[in-house]
Specification:
The complex is a heterodimer of chains A (427) and B (409). Helix content of chain A is 27%, strand content 19%. With 427 residues, chain A is of the alpha/beta class. The longest helix of chain A is centred in the middle third of the chain and has 18 residues. In chain B, the strands form five sheets. In chain B, strands 1, 2, 3, 4, 5, 6, 7, 12, 13, 14 and 15 form an eleven-stranded mixed β-sheet that branches. Chain B has a three-stranded antiparallel β-sheet with strand order 10-9-20, with no helix packed on it. In chain B, strands 8-11 form a two-stranded parallel sheet. The chains are: A alpha/beta (427), B alpha/beta (409).
Chain lengths: 427, 409
């Protein structure tokens, strides 16, 4: 019998997706940096490794309170730098937890042990997002492919799973030479759906001398040569659509359900998420835009904030989500697939179903006009001198006191009405 | 401070999922208001281009209402067709007008074309024939004329826009008093703090890396003291007069999330009086329910006469419960009130863009974005794009590279 071809049901038009209701002052996430010090040197890091940047606990507490004073959020990403290098990391986790926010570590995991994980869990840690990719210069793992790095991912996933009661996520910067490995990572993650709740694939962004711009900060010309994200060549062409196409090689019906657009190009896919529903052996489909909308606004109605991560206690208890199929066609399809399979294999009824989120990020872009296209509703806002700034731009604030603006070297025909205006003024 | 942000609902509006869209049909006007940000550069626009912009704006913003502005839209010869076109696309057409050209016949034609709301710009700073030298309180007579006209036309909502200057601030409570006395006829008041580009030498302005002269703009001022009024100043003035005034929702700033770029209080009442306010939960529930059912957030409901079915939401909203108690206490004193419809009337305190440090603090979730050359821009900065091809970038003189917050500004 000819196998039925599975096609994605939606094009990449963001208008068919739910635009996350996240804003500057009311968001799901925020970002806290205890230090910009790091124990490895990743090729595409947007933060300068600064061994002197470690903040005191008092400073971190002040940052945290300022941040929460300006912005409601569900989870606090404790990042850096490498947060595990901070000697008071347990105290920092407890500090976030005491304020009723979910502390989640973004870490490279170097030196992490099962005992340490248990200690952090006791301090109130909600979960981990491990940054693992093949461009990290990680001791013992240099020269490995993304496929081989799945072994390291497995180690971290197993450690968090064994400690229990926490969420586990991964993120990976996608380089042009690692895009082809995305399907293997997706397959690995699906095989660990009971251990891995989320993973993020972020397109590489680096600037170089071949970029057609001059740069300014606060009106003054600046050079980017000694910033963390300067290379001999620019890497800015990979988009979230490329990564999506790569995911669809192994999940042909994969669809995003929600997104954030750009500050300059509202419908650019700066951040998008799709949430798969699967058992340990089978995938059934995913949440659609309506289901995500109901989850986000329902959570906000009752908790007063938008949801970043589901409670680890819900892990494996995804079947009630099918009720949202009353409003969401995508979930209805997933429910039908589940029931169809359960009729053929009744034991499936007793199996646990999991939700696993795949996020794709396309960081800041310089448009041909020089304008920057950042995430509108940026989830990674952090505090800098009492104000909220995007974590990916923090380097610019720290170095220049303002975000970088770019001006094309060849200025197109602007000022097109200026002449007419001047004529009328004279008249 | 009498506004507690933790008790307010932050509207979830974004660029691509927003209740408001904006289109300008002309940049000509029959008045010349001091401080107006629109310059006469193009005159009446081609209808086909306007229609293209309307479609593009709906596609980009997912908007529920389309503001038709200018210039003065009522001097645009094909204004009825523009309204009709917007209504046919399933949006609520709203006209932002000074009202000078509004006649009974034109009002009927616009209503027949599908107009949902008139939003009249009326304040004492406008050089209107017969109304110069009046106070803001005296301008209530003109507002009454327009409100009565809308009421007689029937089925049209009526709102007013008032630019607030430091000198007119003390009169604002009298305007709210008037609006409360006209609950069935007046559905919205926008109290907008005056803003202009400062020319006192504090800032230099750049576009595309080149320094430009902001003195070409009509809305530029030498004295920063005239543009320092905030939405909180206006709110506090109102609050001093009406101690019970409670806001329920807001939009913050893109640079300073603590600034109240758009702060809203919603009054509930009827012909015989004012009952109280809606709380944050009611606004949240109505916004998300509207979005769940229609796929869009709303700026205003089609029918401001909500009736007592609104009171069901008192189950979730403490402020609304207080309003319900006051309403039925009023009914107990005068049972005929039960026969009167219940209306909602929103009062918004707005603070347009201002410069903080080296950045322009815009509304985070701006509901007046428009399409210019195929892309979405805030309508209040249109002339920067028209004149310089992009939004001006201010740089504080003296080499300070640091950003700032409203507390420092």
């Amino acid at each position: 019998m000819k196998k039925k071809e599975v096609r994605p049901r939606q094009s990449m038009d963001t208008r068919s997706l739910f635009r996350m209701p996240w804003t500057m002052a009311d968001n799901a996430l925020s970002w806290l940096e205890p230090s910009r010090k790091c124990n490895i040197r990743c090729d595409a890091c947007f933060a300068r490794n600064d061994p002197q940047s470690e903040k005191t606990v008092d400073q971190i507490e002040r940052d945290l309170d300022e941040l929460l004073g300006l912005r409601r959020c569900d989870a606090m990403l404790i990042a850096g730098g490498e947060p595990l290098t901070h000697p008071a990391i347990l105290e920092i986790i407890a500090m976030v937890k005491r304020r009723g926010v979910k502390p989640v570590l973004i870490t490279n995991g170097v030196g992490l042990t099962p005992e340490w994980i248990r200690e952090m869990k006791r301090a109130g840690l909600f979960g981990f997002t491990f940054h693992v990719d093949s461009h990290q210069g990680r001791p013992g793992w240099t020269g490995k492919t993304e496929r081989e790095l799945n072994e390291l991912r497995q180690t971290f996933a197993d450690m968090v799973y064994d400690a229990g009661g926490m969420i586990c996520g991964f993120n990976m910067t996608v380089f042009p030479d690692t895009l082809s490995y995305v399907p293997e990572i997706v397959v690995w993650a699906l095989g660990n759906v009971h251990k891995v709740q989320s993973y993020t694939l972020a397109a590489l962004r680096l600037v170089g001398p071949n970029a057609p711009f001059e740069y300014f900060a606060g009106g003054r010309p600046v050079t980017l040569e000694d910033t963390a994200y300067y290379t001999r060549e620019s890497y800015a062409d990979l988009t979230s659509r490329d990564i999506l196409a790569s995911i669809r090689k192994v999940i042909p019906d994969f669809e995003f359900c929600a997104y954030l657009g750009g500050t300059a190009l509202p419908h650019s896919l700066k951040w998008a998420v799709g949430s798969r529903i699967a058992s340990r052996t089978d995938g059934f489909g995913q949440l659609g835009p309506k289901a995500m909308e109901i989850i986000q606004v329902g959570y906000h109605l009752f908790k007063g904030r938008y949801m970043a991560f589901g409670n680890p206690k819900w892990n494996g208890r995804a079947k009630p989500l099918f009720l949202l199929g009353a409003f969401d066609p995508s979930l209805r399809r997933a429910a039908r697939a589940f029931i169809g399979k359960a009729l053929r294999h009744p034991s499936l009824i007793w199996k646990r179903l999991f939700v696993q989120s795949i996020s794709v990020v396309q960081p800041t872009d310089f448009l041909p006009s020089g304008e920057r296209d950042n995430c509108d509703g940026c989830p990674n806002k952090t505090i800098w001198r009492g104000r909220l700034v995007s974590a990916c731009l923090l380097e610019e604030y720290a170095k220049f006191g303002a975000p970088i603006t770019a001006v094309p070297r060849e200025i197109p025909g602007r000022l097109f009405l200026q002449n007419r205006f001047n004529e009328e003024e004279k008249a | 401070m009498s506004v507690q942000r933790g008790r307010l609902y932050k509207f979830p509006w974004s660029k691509t999922d927003n209740p408001g869209g904006w289109v300008e049909v002309t940049d000509e006007c029959n008045l010349s208001c001091p401080g107006c940000y629109r310059h006469r550069l193009e005159g009446h626009r081609e209808l086909s281009r306007i229609k293209d912009d309307i479609v593009a704006c709906q596609r980009l913003t997912n908007c529920d209402r389309m503001g038709i502005a200018g210039g003065e839209p009522l001097i645009y010869p094909e204004i009825v067709e523009v309204v009709d076109y917007i209504a046919r696309l399933g949006m609520k057409p709203m006209l932002l007008t000074n009202g000078e050209n509004l006649t009974w016949e034109l009002g009927r034609a616009l209503k027949a074309a599908g107009l949902t709301k008139f939003h009249f710009h009326v304040d004492c700073g406008m050089p209107r024939s017969g109304w110069t030298g009046k106070t803001e309180t005296e301008m209530n007579a003109l507002r009454q004329k327009y409100a009565d006209l809308c009421w007689e036309l029937g089925g049209l909502q009526c709102g007013f826009n008032i630019t607030v200057f430091p000198r007119t601030l003390p009169d604002i409570p009298a305007v709210i008093e008037w609006a409360r006395a006209n609950m069935p006829r007046v559905h919205h008041l926008s109290l907008v703090a005056f803003r202009a580009i400062p020319l006192d030498g504090t800032y230099e302005f750049y576009a595309g890396g080149r320094r430009v002269d902001p003195g070409v703009f009509k809305h530029s001022v030498m004295d920063q003291g005239t543009i320092g009024l905030t939405s909180l100043d206006i709110f506090e003035t109102v609050r001093r007069h009406f101690g019970e005034f409670i806001p329920c929702a807001y939009l913050g700033g893109t640079s300073d999330p603590e600034s109240y770029k758009f702060l809203v209080g919603v009054q509930v009442g009827g012909r015989s009086g004012f009952d109280g306010f809606l709380g944050a939960k009611t606004v949240e529930i109505t916004q998300i329910a509207h979005h769940l059912w229609t796929g869009r957030y709303f700026d205003f409901l089609r029918f401001p006469e909500t009736g007592r079915r609104l009171f069901v939401l008192g189950l979730f909203d403490r402020e609304l419960r207080r309003t319900i108690v006051r309403h039925f206490a009023g009914v107990a004193r005068r049972p005929t009130r039960l026969l009167e419809p219940v209306y909602v009337q929103s009062i918004s305190f707005q603070q347009p863009n201002e410069i903080l440090g080296n950045e322009v603090n815009m509304c985070d979730g701006c509901m007046n974005a428009m399409v210019f050359r195929g892309r979405l821009i805030p309508s209040c900065r249109l002339d920067e794009y028209r004149l310089f091809g992009e939004a001006l970038r201010p740089v504080r003189k003296g080499g300070s590279l640091e950003g700032g917050s409203s507390n420092q500004a």
